[in-house]
Amino acid sequence: MKTQIRKFQSQQILLIVVVALSLCATAPAQQCDPMPRHSSPSSMPEWCSDMMKMHDEFLKMVKAQDAELASQVEKMKNAPVGQKETFIEATLTLMIQQQSEQHAEMAKMLDQMKSNMTKSGCQMMQDM
Hints:
Layout: H1 2-26, H2 46-78, H3 84-119
Helix pairs in contact: 2-3
């Protein structure tokens, strides 16, 4: 189950990255020039480094959630028979809360990315 959760979380992150990369890659050159390659983080536009920080924070949040869920699953596995149902309910509730938090964070990152790309002249982002 833990592998399935991590696979789903990885798929969500991959989807965000694919969408971000495909937006500029598929746009006509006059509307959205590809981002220049930067040799070091200090030469990147500020919003790029901000997005990288947001991504790193998101990964930290997911890692902490994974640890919390693993702890809850252990409690569920080791619960006395009469309390298993309570622990299963608590585990399911935790999973739903974590997924909601992740979706909210991804939406926040996508909004920020749209805003930054629009400000930097990518017209395609204005239609999203």
